[in-house]
Amino acid sequence: MTGSDEHTEQACKRVDDGMARVFGLFGKRWTGLVVAALMEHGAYFADLRRAIPGISERMLSDRLAELAATGLVVRKVDEGPPLRVSYRLTEAGRALEPALKELTRWAETYLPDGGGCPEQFRG
């Protein structure tokens, strides 16, 4: 194997399946913010909607359903009136806290205010 072939083999190595699953879920817009909003404590749907500016009710509902289906969020219906639905993280959801805090530290260091992509990450 030549040096060029070895480099190509390394460059084309498949991404880890676990990483692919993580980004399959967290690569969707709003998912990380929903989890972050629930990190401190559970919340009602309307409170989550207010906590995440710009998210539509439909999108919030979709993301909460996905997170519940993966076992990261528990949905609880409080009998009314009025009927209210609350959400909280499961143990698996709360276990994301160190990773989310580390991502926050990374963003504070490497992403400029305003959320734009720094020059070194642009194509």
UniProtKB/TrEMBL annotation:
Q: Which UniProt keywords apply?
A: DNA-binding, Transcription, Transcription regulation
Record protein name field? Helix-turn-helix transcriptional regulator
**Highest taxon above the source species:** Bacteria
Q: Where is the HTH hxlR-type domain?
A: 12-115
Leader sequence segment: none
Protein source organism: Streptomyces pactum
Which Gene3D superfamilies does its entry note? Winged helix-like DNA-binding domain superfamily/Winged helix DNA-binding domain
Q: Is DNA-binding one of the keywords?
A: yes
Under InterPro entries, the record lists:
HTH_HxlR, WH-like_DNA-bd_sf, WH_DNA-bd_sf
